[in-house]
């Protein structure tokens, strides 16, 4: 892991050595050991045990502010830079299970590294971000960190990572399978649409549908109220209908 951290640091060295005064100001001082211990304890509650040291070291090395947020429906995490002070803030939803939290955490740190190297001259999820994400994830792609059900689709996803893990149904379904079961209005566990057999009825967004057939990452479903057919992601959470 130290080799990978060195490689990541090397990618940022040109900016640190040759950047403008503004760039230098945007690099916060490393926090003291006491603060590191506090961060370790915080991350310990949200990450797989074998990834806590690595993620704490990333936080210490790059000096960003980490905020744990509630369950946000529109995002799993984000990365922001205060254009005046240069302070970097990364947020991650604390409602995520530990393996999903880890993937999101590294996703956002990759944004930080891409920004430090290229500033605003690149696309948010372009090849520069993809490279940093791959480098960050590489030492963790092992069975010691990720469960077997997640590791295989994660390795495939990391070959060309996209803007959201939810856009990769195989990975998203694998990650969601580790969640604590969420109950529907009848007290039964919610399902992923991928788990609903063809020909079965389910409820999604307060509307009942018939699952007609699966089409790659989405399913063709018929709205039972108006008879129209729609494509719905197989990673969507749905309610059982008796």
SSE layout and pairing:
Blueprint (H helix, E strand, L loop, with lengths): L1 H17 L2 H5 L7 H12 L7 H11 L2 E5 L7 E5 L6 E6 L4 H21 L8 H11 L10 H11 L10 H8 L14 E2 L8 E4 L2 E9 L2 E6 L5 E5 L3 E4 L2
Parallel strand pairs: 1-3
Antiparallel strand pairs: 2-3, 4-9, 5-6, 5-9, 6-7, 7-8
Structure overview:
The protein contains 8 helices and 9 strands. The protein is an alpha+beta fold. It has 2 domains: 33-177; 191-240, SH3 type barrels (Roll). The strands form 2 sheets. It has a 6-stranded antiparallel β-sheet. Strand 5 (201-204) and strand 6 form a beta hairpin. It starts with a helix and ends with a strand. 28% of the residues are buried. The model is unreliable at 9-31 (pLDDT under 50).
Question: Which bin fits the share of residues in helices?
Answer: 25-40%
* E-strand count: 9
Question: Could you give the order of the helices and strands?
Answer: HHHHEEEHHHHEEEEEE
* Average pLDDT metric: 84
- Helices, by number, come to 8
Strand arrangement, major sheet: 4-9-5-6-7-8
Q: Main sheet, how many strands, which sense, barrel?
A: 6 strands, antiparallel
Summarize this entry quickly.
The chain is an alpha+beta fold and 242 residues long. Helix content is 40%, strand content 19%. It contains 8 helices and 9 strands.
What labels would you give this structure?
three-stranded mixed β-sheet, SH3 type barrels, 19% strand, alpha+beta, 242 residues
